[in-house]
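Structure ticket #2291
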Amino acid sequence: MQQQRLAWPGRPLQQARPFWPCSRAFALQPVKAASSNLAETAPQSGCVYEQLARAAGATTAATVGTTQLGRGLVASRDIPCPREPLVSVPVQNALIIADDPVSSISIYSDRAHRRWQEAHGELPELLLEFLQGDARWDIRMAAWLLYVKQLAAQQGSLQLWPAYLALLPQEQDSCCLLNYNRWEAAELQLPELVAEAAVQADWAAYLHGKYLHYKSGSLGPLGLSSSLSESLWAISMVRSRTFSEDMAGECLTLMVPYADLANHSFDNNSTFCMSRDSKR
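Resolution: structure written out below.
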């Protein structure tokens, strides 16, 4: 049995999406529970991470810990059987969109939107049309995340979204290239990285003005973003924390609370998928 923190597959360098996704994660091989010298409970873990797991409806054989490699999910007990679920989150507690809902099928994503609204309230018509429209997958997901941020700030909001957002990094703590300003990008040193950071920053600013800004954006009436930094935060969270899945030819992008605490590795000992009934 391997004694390691849990790691989902890493992204091939040529792919456009940062991470790969799921509602259910399972072991590829037997995994041994983390020993005390490998995984120590993360400082704020006791209530915060357990609160998030409960709010997300997650069933889990993993816990959040600080390992030699940083914060991540570690096995809380021995996992003797391959394909045994490690973390399972109900679909209605994940943000799910179709990558190409206009020119391709969108059966699973439409169903996921209905389930999400049944659990968390009706989405504004303008936002729902946008989520099912032809804009890029990442800006559609960023708009949904900003809407969730609004929900979390409302009095009496469901526990899930405040618990989830509280554990997401701040914009200034994100290491996506689009977050580097001109002076920070110079510290990247490699000319190709400096150039790419400038391209991504310009691209993000364009998306902010076209879609998200509360005055100039097409989603302006929703009041999703009042500043470029707020939009950069949402886009960088999407580009660093989303998963993808193919369901009967429909390519999906997902944000899955609690499951996205796992780290990613090209030498992964776990992977992910949606359950056959598409409920988790």
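Closing remark: The longest helix spans residues 191-212.
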